[in-house]
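JOB MANIFEST
job_type = single_chain_structure
chain_count = 1
residues = 58
[input]
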Amino acid sequence: MAKKGSKEVVKLENKETGIFYTTTKNTKSENTQGKMKFRKYDKKLRKHVVFTEAKMPH
């Protein structure tokens, strides 16, 4: 069974188009402080743009 606790599911969203990806974030690591930012492909704009971490609805 998987261990519980150190990973958190986060939502990466482009605010302009509303497109989002989900990924996991290691909450115990010192390297993942603050909001994550990635350049990913946006299907509506048909190009790579910056996606930032947003709140996940629970």
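[summary]
The first strand starts at residue 7 and ends at 13.
The chain has a mean pLDDT of 88.
exit_status = 0
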